[in-house]
Design brief:
Length: 206
């Protein structure tokens, strides 16, 4: 416990996970009769572990709940934006109601990135909601909760990057850029901006 005093950079839930891994390694090395042995306070090793980490468990619950709620809000907003973008065709439609740039590679790129953004944002919402509906037992912090949190972060990052790429494709279509080099430069710039944005969000959440 003293090792983690004042060291909360990785998040209290990850610190609790490290404590659980340490406990599991020690338990696996001991004979069974020592695992169920009771100390002078009539507590087993597991009961003593739960008692000593009770405050850390409460902090970890609050931390992961707040993180999941904040990230799910962002994911819902991203899903709403890309869903609306799917129905507002870049460049408009012709007399038959078909997109003017239907045969363009840029339009195909926009469609694919928009679909990826929508799917990944909804997947991240599912991950964060599964965290919020969890029982938050101490055993859940060993693998389940933090695995879901990592998957949620991954899907949310993918949705943000895909959204930026879809936006760059929309700009290319709207401006009717015919030079591929300029289009690629614009896409690369958006990739860099999206990566920086995802990195900032990641550091802010942790």
């Amino acid at each position: 416990m003293a090792f983690y005093t004042g060291n909360h950079e990785a998040g209290i839930a990850y610190q609790l996970q490290e404590e659980l891994r340490w406990y599991q390694r020690v338990e696996n090395m001991l004979p069974r009769n020592l695992v169920i042995h009771r100390n002078d306070d009539n507590l087993t090793a597991q009961e003593l572990f739960l008692k000593e980490h009770e405050s850390m468990l409460i902090e970890a619950r609050n931390w992961i709940k707040d993180t999941a709620q904040s990230c799910s809000t962002v994911a819902v907003l991203v899903a709403a934006v890309v869903y609306a973008a799917a129905y507002s065709t870049p460049g408009g439609t012709d007399d038959r109601g078909l997109p003017k740039f239907l045969g363009s590679s840029n339009f195909l790129f926009f469609t694919l990135t928009d679909v990826v953004a929508l799917g990944s944002s909804l997947a991240s919402v599912v991950m964060f909601l599964s965290i919020l509906t969890s029982s938050f037992q101490i055993k859940d912090f060993y693998k389940s909760l933090l695995r879901k949190l990592s998957l949620g972060f991954a899907f949310l990052s993918l949705s943000l990057i895909s959204t930026m790429l879809a936006f760059s494709a929309t700009v290319v279509i709207t401006m009717k850029l015919e030079k591929t080099n300029w289009a690629l430069i614009l896409i690369y710039c958006c990739c860099v901006v999206s990566y920086c944005g995802v990195y900032i969000i990641w550091k802010a959440l942790l």
